[in-house]
Amino acid sequence: MKGTIFTFFTIAALMVACDPDDDAVKAVYDPTPYALDFGDFPNPNLPADNKPTVAGVQLGRMLFYEKMLSKDGSQACADCHLQKDAFSDIRQFSIGVEQLPGKRQAMAVFNLAWHKNGMFWDGRAPKVRDQALKPIQDPLEMNETLENAVAKLQADKRYTDQFIRAFGDETVTSERMGLAMEQFEFTMVSNKSKYDGYLAGTGTLSDSEERGRQLFFAEFDPFLGQKGGECFHCHGGFNFTNDQFMNNGLDEEANFTDEGRFKVTNDPADKAKFKVPSLRNVALTAPYMHDGRFTTLEEVVEHYNSGVKNSPTVDPLLQYNLSPGLQLSAQDRADLVAFLKTLTDTSFLTDERFSSPF
Predict the structure, then answer these.
(1) Letter string b/e over residues 221-241, b meaning 16 or more CB atoms within 10 A of that residue's CB
(2) Fewest CB within 10 A of the end CB: N or C in the chain?
(3) Which ranges in the chain belong to alpha helices (H)?
(4) Rounded CA separation 229/217 (Å)
């Protein structure tokens, strides 16, 4: 009997000693750098004040998927940026906690370590850390105050422990939240598409994809009879974006219902200019344009072929799109779409490093 009692109390004592909530179990600061996997991409110039660490990235990942950052605990960032859709939203406009639609199509989240010219369609957030906090406060999105979000995290030991690991103490601040989410989003690199394999010499393109590739990177010249898609001017480089704000001729001036970058700069030259998105994973991120007006890649290609409209701020690069139009045949347009689909990175859609940690 005595042995039984002794064994019971011994097991109970061990259980208490192993309780993760016990004060004896302390989280400690861990500055281990995070090894960013960017393959053949150029080395990103990450901010000196926020180099990713393993603990910081994990905290940012937790916050990206944390629903209690919203007013009613029903939505996280990941609910409008789904991994299976290349961290985009296939709805024309995302629906917030008050069941109200947003004003613009949600942009896809990847390769942000190379975006240096402002976040969102209008660039109103200078850095990723700034962008990460705005949906929390937006009445059309998560509709929460940063003060309330901080208080909820501060009351949760999972988070105070992770803030210790990431920042050295358990103090939760909105600034630290933004920094952690920025670190996580810097790790979300998409660089393993079929086209990347083609560039590396480990894969090939079909005849249609190859014709589309040539059209994508060719200039149209009506005087020389040269056929081209003119795409690379705005969607060039390894990330298929020039990271600029441009008016791509969606509307004439009388029909500007969204003045885009102008709302940030108040410069009339910026009216109807929007951030040029990356075309990586573009086959997965419909609908297209800032207002989601096009539902297919075929519609997008046809816009540039014959649908560009003139206005005072339309980009000069679109001069031939305006007149005489690119004069692409049905086969040309199909080939361009085929090439765009080679930019899909299927591994990115299932990479556990970017999935929910819960």
Answers:
(1) eeeeeebbbbbbebbeebbbb
(2) N
(3) 2-17, 54-64, 128-137, 146-154, 157-167, 174-186, 194-200, 207-216, 262-265, 297-302, 319-322, 330-341
(4) 7
Q: Write the pLDDT tens digit of every residue in 233-277.
A: 999 999 999 999 999 999 999 999 999 999 999 999 999 999 999
- CA 133 to CA 131: how far, in whole Å? 6
Q: How far apart are CA 175 and CA 40, in angstroms?
A: 32
Domains recognised in the chain with CATH numbers: 26-190 (1.10.760.10), 194-342 (1.10.760.10)
Give pLDDT tens digits for 169-182.
Answer: 999 999 999 999 99
Beta strands in 7-103 (DSSP E): none
3-class state of residue 227 by DSSP = coil
